Amino acid sequence: MKLIPQFVVGHGSAKALLCLVVLAALGAVVARAAHIPAAFLIAPLIVSAIFAVRGLSSIRLTKPSFFLVQGIIGVSLASSFTASSLAVLQVHWLPVLFVVVSMQVFTILNALFFVYFGKLSPATALLGTLPGGAGEMAAISETFGADPRLVSVMQYTRLLVIVLMVSVGSSIIGVNSASAGNVLLAPAVVSLGSNMLSLLVAIAGVFIGLKLRIPAGTMIVPLFLSLFISSLGFSLGFAQPVLWLVYAGLGLQIGSQFDQSVVERMKHLAFSLIGASLFLMFGSMLIAMAFSKMINLNGVTAYLAATPGGLDSVAVIASEVQADPAIVLTVHFSRLVLVLTTGPLLVKLFSRIMTGHVRTDEILDLEKLERKEVSLESN
Asked: Using CA atoms, how far apart are residues 302 and 95, in angstroms rounded to an integer?
C-alpha cells in the first residue's frame, strides 16, 4: 500500500502502519528526553526493525526520497565545516590516511574470519564487510560471483549494530545531545525563505551528484554546494522539525531492511556476524585512540571518524554530540572513495589468493534455505 506516492511506501495493514509510526515517534521523544544522541534516528530504527522482523509492517523510502534525505543532511552539515576544521585536515592528512587504510586492513581480517568460520566464498565475505555503501556493495556482488542477498544481510546487520553501538559509545565518551557544543540542528525558528532555499540546494545537489556519479554524491555535493552558496552571503538552514522528520525517515529505512526472510538467511551466520561486529568495533576503538593522539582530537570525534558505520547515520550522530562533523565526514568520505575505487580490484585479488585454501559451503547453505522457503510458501 502506498502512503504517499513517490515518497514513502508502506507494507502492512493500516492499523499496523499507524502503530509503527506512533511508537517510532513516541520512542524518539522519550529517547530525546533521555538525552540519547540522534534520538530521532535511533528510536525509529529500532522500532522499524522490530516491526519488520515480526512481519507486522514496514515503511521504506523510495529512491528519490532517500536521495533527498541524504541531500538535506548534506546541506545541514555545511554549517559544521569551520575554517579551523579544514585547516586541521590540510595539515594532518597523513593521520586521516592512517585511519582510512587501517580500517581497510581490519576489514580484510574480518573477511578472513567469515571465510574460515562463516564458510562464505571470499568474494561474498569481502563485499559483505567492506565499509562502503551497502547498496553499492550489493549491486556489484553478482559481477564477482558473490551472493547479493548475503552481502546485503551482512552490510545491513553491520550497519544496525554499528549505529546502535556508536550511539551508546558516543554518549558514554562524550556529552548528551542537549548540551553538545557542535549541534548541527538548526535553531527552532528558521525563516520560510531559508527553508525553501535550503531545499532547492539539496535537490540541485542530489541531481548533480547523481549525474556525475560521485561516490556518496547525494550528500557530499549538497554539502559543498551549500558551503559555496553560504559564502555568497545567503542564509541556509532547516527548522528542527524538518530535520527530525528526515532523521526519522532514515531510521525507518534502515530498520525496514530486517524482515523475516533476512533473519532466516542470517541464522547460519549468527556467530560470525556477532564476532565480526565486535571485532570491527574493537578495531575502530584502537584506531580512534591512535587518531586522537596523533592530532589531539577529543574522543568522540576520533571514535566517530574511525567507526565503520554508514556515512549518513554517523553524520547524524556526529551532529548531536560534542564532535567535529567536518573531520568525521571527511574521514568517512575518504574511506568510501577508497572502498569504491579499490574494492573491485581488492575483491579479485582476495578471491584469487583465498580460492583453493578453504572449502566454502555457501551455495549448499543457500540451497537449503531456498528449499525451506519454498516449503513454507507451499504450506
From this structure: 11
